[in-house]
Amino acid sequence: MIGRISSALMVFLISSAFVAANAADANSGDPGWRRTVSHYNVSFDEQGRSTIVFDFEIQAVDDKGAEAISQQAFRYNSNADELSFSDLATLKADGRLIAVDERAIRDQPVSADSSSSYSSEERRRTVAYSHVAAGDRIRGRLIYKSKRADFAGEFADDGGAFTERRDRADAGMALASGLKRLPE
What we know:
- With 184 residues, the protein is of the alpha+beta class.
- The protein has a single domain, classed as Sandwich (Immunoglobulin-like).
- It is 26% helix and 36% strand.
- The strands form 2 sheets. Strands 1-2-8-4-5 form a 5-stranded antiparallel beta sheet. A 3-stranded antiparallel beta sheet has the order 3-7-6.
- The longest helix is centred in the last third of the chain and has 18 residues.
- The radius of gyration is 22 Å and the shape is globular.
């Protein structure tokens, strides 16, 4: 039960990375940017630990949008998850690609309040994209890997029973597709 709740919380935290973006989309005013790619892929290993991969791309329509998207912040819980990035870059309107320098990524606690029990767990990684102008796009891939099993025991090795069931299902589908359809 706790694992399922933590999975839902994780998906919520990932999607909250662009909450401000969604709010701007719903706003009657033009935010100055458009999301062109937003793709999630969630998988589980045999121990029930999740890996969430989030690919995104955002285009700056005007100077206001370029300023808004040039810095992105992503939250995570360092005790529960590992957060890594790949393919972080600014795609210039003329086709050039400017990769994000590792020094442009800051990792810091969400809260500066040291009395908070969660101050060391809740973290924010901020990525600064360089040379973003109107017409440019930023892109990236975030990978959240859980350190604990979200669904312990649910993905354990079943001694090949799953493979056998899948093979039987594949054979049944092949057999059904090979049968002639009788006229009605």
